[in-house]
Design goal:
The chain is 69% helix and 4% strand. By secondary structure, the chain is mainly alpha-helical. It starts with 9 loop residues before the first helix and ends with a helix. Belongs to the binding-protein-dependent transport system permease family.
Length: 317
């Protein structure tokens, strides 16, 4: 009898994933390597004259440390905190409400759509809308003056608190829906038996939230925090449009990516590359810290108990 030929389909798997790797190589990996390479070079344009690329070592990195980079880093952190803190708090509250079977909330699908809707609006359109609404001659000032609450128009975009609050509020509106949906999915993944057992043991809603819900959705919380940090470091479109690219007032809303964009505008590729590397390193460090803080390697406390037991045994000896 003739033996049947075995057909190997493994090659088709490699063929199907090949387009991804080619695209990644051309559009991501090569530009990334080039960015790091140019960060060690003097490479910019002065008028119509192109200077470089001339190798200058870490001079670009040192120049950035002497510039306003640290100030813009502080601005980015403040704007991120203003947007993220209410975002995660409200998202957690809404996720717990919508997944609580005892509340019997009707029309959940409608509310999910409404909550997620701002996430579908482009950031540029959102920023332009708020710029129009909160300008000196905008509808918000007109309403406040017609109600008699203020006598003169409020310059929302002319004050530090006003501009930062608007940027934070817009980031909150755009992303809290996405965070809520993810946290709802995480809470719904918890077995109902655990909640029922906690009720039988007399556990109230607050204790159930802090001792059951939060620890069990920790991986999703870590993912949310890490993606939010990366997004916060890349904050650009909202403050760029709202302040017309100037970071006003007094550059207090200038973010790191806006600073990077100013170097790209002036064709200073060496400084832009160095700043990109700084952002990459800071993102990596912050994400590692968050991962270490939120990753519980001993959820049941068995490792801690074993260490304690080993310590007691050593003392006895």
């Amino acid at each position: 009898m003739k033996k049947k030929k075995s057909i190997s389909y493994a090659k088709w798997g490699y063929i199907f994933i090949l387009p991804f790797f080619i695209t990644f190589l051309i559009f991501s990996l090569i530009p990334l390597v080039d960015t790091v390479r140019y960060s060690f070079y003097e490479y910019y344009r002065s008028g119509i004259k192109e200077i470089g690329p001339n190798f200058i070592g870490i001079a670009n990195y040192l120049s950035l440390l002497k510039s306003d980079m640290l100030k813009y880093s502080a601005n980015t952190l403040i704007l991120w905190v203003i947007g993220f803190v209410p975002q995660i708090v409200i998202a957690l509250v809404l996720a717990c409400w919508f997944t609580d079977a005892r509340l019997k909330i009707h029309g959940q699908q409608f509310f999910k759509v409404v909550i997620y809707l701002p996430n579908l609006i482009m950031a540029s359109a959102f920023a332009l809308l708020f710029f129009t609404m909160f300008s000196t001659n905008g509808p918000i000032n007109s309403i406040l003056m017609s109600l008699g609450w203020v006598k003169n128009p409020i310059d929302f975009l002319g004050s530090v608190i006003g501009t930062r609050s608007l940027v934070g509020f817009m980031n909150f509106l755009m992303w809290f829906g996405n965070t809520t949906i993810m946290l709802m999915a995480a809470v719904m993944g918890i077995s109902m038996d655990i909640f029922e057992a906690s009720e039988l043991d007399g556990c109230n809603s607050i204790k159930r939230f802090f001792y059951i819900t939060l620890p069990l959705i920790r991986p999703i919380l870590a993912y949310t925090l890490i993606t939010s940090i990366i997004g916060g470091l890349q904050m650009f479109d909202v403050p760029q449009i709202l302040t017309n690219g100037q970071g006003n007032p007094d550059r207090t809303s200038m973010t790191l990516i806006m600073f990077l964009n100013s170097h790209l505008k002036s064709k200073n590729y060496g400084m832009a590359g160095a700043l990109s590397v700084y952002l990459f390193i800071v993102s990596g460090i912050l994400c590692m810290i968050v991962y270490k803080m939120t990753n519980d390697t001993d959820p049941d406390g068995s490792k801690k108990a074993a260490k304690k037991k080993a310590k007691e045994e050593r003392r006895r000896r």
